[in-house]
Amino acid sequence: MRSRVWLAGAAGIAVAVALLSWAFERAGGLRFVQPLGDLAVWVLIPAVLCEAAVQACKAWKWTGILAPTKRVRFASALQAVLVGGMATHVVPLRIDELLRARILGDAEDLPAATVLGTVAIDRVIEILVLGTLLGLAAIAGDLTGPLELAVQVAWAGFVAGALVLALFVLAEARAAAFLARWTGPGAALINRLSTVVTDMARGLRSLPRGRDLARVIAGTAGEWTATIAMYALVLVGFGIGPASSTPLVMALGGAAAYGVPNVPGAMGTFEAAQVTLLDQLLRLPADEALAVALVCHAVLAIPISLVGSGVALGIWLRRSAHLGS
Known about the structure:
The chain is mainly alpha-helical and 325 residues long.
């Protein structure tokens, strides 16, 4: 088991190195350094503030998702989010969710498994948001060629999936009853599936309601608004007037890059995605596109890694002092 974990980590690092090498080779080696000199450094301050807002909104959203289980403190959720964000960029395995579940569970006296269960709800919300943003990108009309087709196909897939999910929730009782009554071949296995179907539907119905749902919606909207603003600011810093959908599509590309498992901090996947998108959207030269991608990635990775490491160190010191006493 342990060898598989190490193998997955090594594979992720290999993918990161290969994609980074491709991006640098496409940009002509160190030619990207010259466009970096054109960056208006002042934009880094509001860009980093946008990223800080993203982390705060994630924590605020999480308190809303957890509200049906327990009212947790915003400070506890924020420190868990910060340490999890650090782990995303430092560790070549997707342990960030496990880590933040453990930290919040310890801080609020909740079982880590209970906290981790809310991640599934968070993922459903993310899928809904990504699908909505894909639709907006398709409607904006700034995309052309293969990228336009890819976004339209993804949007169609999301709509179909959302309809299937809605039908599943609506028809769950009938489906579960049918499976429970099945007496044909494989009856034992099919009967057990009725419980699985019921549990899945119950989980999908466990979304927060009322003020808690409003908190989740506000946190999600703030998170994505701040993310899109960060990309827009970096483009402005390079003197690039982005088309209306460019920062949005870059945000979607960044989310997809970070979704690749076992790649530490989306190294390589992020640069490859952004260079490709900037070529398709703005026809930027490869060296300038790589410079933009590296700055965006630095804003996403460096502050959260430094702050998250500091928070993790503080937690470790407090626990050590407590055990020592």
